[in-house]
Design a protein that fits this description.
Blueprint (H helix, E strand, L loop, with lengths): L1 H28 L29 E6 L7 E4 L5 E4 L3 E4 L5 H12 L8 E7 L8 E6 L5 E4 L6 H7 L12 E7 L2 E7 L1 H7 L13 E4 L10
């Protein structure tokens, strides 16, 4: 009889252990929120990734299949045109690579039966200043940083060397173009770096500017 009771206790204990393990495993598998993702005051993302359009100063590679004498790498001139053999000047500025390829392909069909043209942008110089995030004010190394998808406030401030000894990190701002104007959103860098509070570690977008003001004696910040 005692052996039977002991067996029951063992089985009950095993079932409880399994239930606890499953519960803990389920909790552990739930992903945590991304930094700043649940902040209702996060600034709106006002730009979307758009298909690339060729611009002045871009270096493009034009390849005409089986016609290497027509293939070339060329820089888009200040007037927006490129010069192509058998065609003369072709407008490239403002066109997507596939559209320019179609234009060249169509023009060459009068002299080549099946041109099969491809265009690749090998150096997108025209977009250099359109895809930057800037950090100014009281940081150790004010800088402009090429934008990368998924970049956040903390990432670029670290690349700028962090807040200087004279910077009021708790009063930093994110300046974002919304329509034709810039709007400012409060960022607490002190909370991010000192307390691990990521509520203002916002996602960034091209042309954002982070500004860190100087500490103020009147605010008791020194």
């Amino acid at each position: 009889m005692n052996a039977a009771k002991g067996m029951v206790r063992v089985l009950v204990g095993a079932l409880i252990s399994i239930a606890v393990t499953v519960t803990l495993s389920g909790c552990a598998s739930q992903p945590g929120p991304a930094p700043g993702a649940n902040d209702e005051n996060a600034p709106p993302m006002s730009t979307q990734v758009q298909p690339y359009e060729i611009g002045v100063g871009d270096t493009i590679s034009v390849n005409v299949w089986r016609n290497p004498e027509l293939s070339q790498t060329i820089i888009v001139r200040p007037d927006g045109y490129i010069s192509m053999p058998l065609m003369g000047d072709v407008l490239a500025d403002g066109q997507r690579p596939e559209a320019l390829a179609a234009t060249i392909d169509q023009s060459l069909r009068s002299v080549i039966r099946t041109p099969e043209v491809t265009v690749m942008v090998t150096n997108p110089a025209s977009s250099e200043y359109l895809n930057l995030v800037r950090v100014t004010g009281q940081v150790n190394a004010p800088t402009s940083i090429p934008f990368k998808q998924g970049m956040r406030v903390m990432d670029v401030v670290l690349q700028a060397g962090g807040v200087s000894d004279y910077g009021a990190g708790s009063r930093a701002t994110l300046n974002r173009r919304v329509g034709a104007d810039y709007r400012s959103y409060a960022i607490d860098l002190e909370a991010i770096f000192s307390r691990g509070d990521m509520s203002t570690n916002f996602l960034l977008q091209p042309d954002d500017v982070i500004t860190v003001p100087e500490k103020s004696v009147w605010r008791g910040e020194f």
